[in-house]
UniProtKB/TrEMBL annotation:
<feature type="region of interest" description="Disordered">
    <location>
        <begin position="31"/>
        <end position="52"/>
    </location>
</feature>
<feature type="transmembrane region" description="Helical">
    <location>
        <begin position="229"/>
        <end position="251"/>
    </location>
</feature>
<keyword id="KW-1133">Transmembrane helix</keyword>
<dbReference type="InterPro" id="IPR016566">
    <property type="entry name" value="UCP010219"/>
</dbReference>
<protein>
    <submittedName>
        <fullName>DUF3159 domain-containing protein</fullName>
    </submittedName>
</protein>
<feature type="transmembrane region" description="Helical">
    <location>
        <begin position="147"/>
        <end position="168"/>
    </location>
</feature>
<dbReference type="Pfam" id="PF11361">
    <property type="entry name" value="DUF3159"/>
</dbReference>
<feature type="transmembrane region" description="Helical">
    <location>
        <begin position="71"/>
        <end position="90"/>
    </location>
</feature>
<feature type="transmembrane region" description="Helical">
    <location>
        <begin position="123"/>
        <end position="141"/>
    </location>
</feature>
<keyword id="KW-0472">Membrane</keyword>
<keyword id="KW-0812">Transmembrane</keyword>
<feature type="transmembrane region" description="Helical">
    <location>
        <begin position="200"/>
        <end position="223"/>
    </location>
</feature>
<feature type="transmembrane region" description="Helical">
    <location>
        <begin position="96"/>
        <end position="116"/>
    </location>
</feature>
Length: 265
């Protein structure tokens, strides 16, 4: 068949193909379409996406973030014990006010220190808000244990939301993993094994949060403010960290096994 003698519809298709190719070249869409070796090479050269455990650590502020979030509580406990009946013997409300002032000052100092060093202050601001609410409740009631009430209620609330997500078959831990370790993709719904893993891991978090909040709530009802502070610092964070570590391990185990099975197939 000589040039120009092609059927009309074939010639029309060739024109469309050429126009499409010109548009792709003009707008440099090969990277999006994955049509060139250069695009594939670029994807291969990209820095690996951080693991879930690394992302979680970043969200919490790492070890430093955990320490900084505990300092205001530590200041409150120490001042309330030292200035109260245990050591100095100040009147209950006076000791409480000093403890509140120390906690707020510690939170503000952490935020100021980060600002001076031009570091992110997200964690410091979040911590200051929680400290401020707790300090207000304790100041209004005159009971030191009320300083911890917002954190207790928040933890119970988190457990309730996680439990509901399991019942409606939308496990929140799956969404967290998708955002933190799967480049924002939520394609785990089509993976039955991952879906089941996220379901029971979310229940693990419900238990973990409930235990933390439950112990503190009992102490709050008993009016054991100092014991509450000790539990908050020495028990709550280790439980939290252990649950995070277990979650990262469980997900890594499933994804690694599935990757190995896919490569062997």
């Amino acid at each position: 068949m000589t040039p120009g003698s092609e059927p009309r519809h074939a010639a029309h298709e060739n024109v469309e193909e050429r126009l499409a190719e010109e548009v792709v070249e003009e707008l440099n869409l090969h990277e999006v379409l994955g049509a060139t070796p250069d695009a594939k090479k670029k994807d291969e050269d990209e820095e690996p996406f951080p693991s879930m455990s690394e992302q979680i650590s970043e969200q919490l502020g790492g070890v430093r973030g955990l320490i900084e979030s505990s300092l205001p509580v530590f200041a409150f406990v120490i001042l309330n014990v030292v200035l109260g009946d245990a050591v100095v013997g100040l009147e209950k409300r006076t000791a409480l006010y000093w403890a509140i002032g120390g906690a707020v000052f510690a939170a503000l100092a952490i935020g100021a220190f980060r600002l001076i060093r031009k570091e992110p202050v997200r964690h410091a601001v979040n911590g200051l808000f929680g400290i401020a609410v707790g300090a207000f409740l304790a100041y209004r009631s005159g009971n030191a244990e009320d300083f911890y009430l917002p954190g207790i209620l928040l933890t119970f609330g988190q457990a309730a939301v996680l439990l509901i997500s399991v019942f409606v078959r939308k496990p929140i831990i799956g969404y967290v993993w998708g955002v933190m370790a799967n480049k924002g993709q939520q394609n785990w719904f089509g993976n039955e094994r991952l879906f089941k893993t996220f379901q029971w891991l979310t229940l693990v978090w419900v238990v973990s949060l409930s235990v933390r909040a439950g112990i503190q709530f009992v102490l709050w009802q008993m009016g054991e403010a100092n014991a509450l502070g000790i539990v908050r610092i020495l028990i709550s964070w280790p439980i939290y960290a252990a649950t995070f570590a277990f979650t990262a391990w469980a997900i890594h185990r499933v994804t690694s096994e599935q990757k190995t099975e896919a490569e062997a197939a």
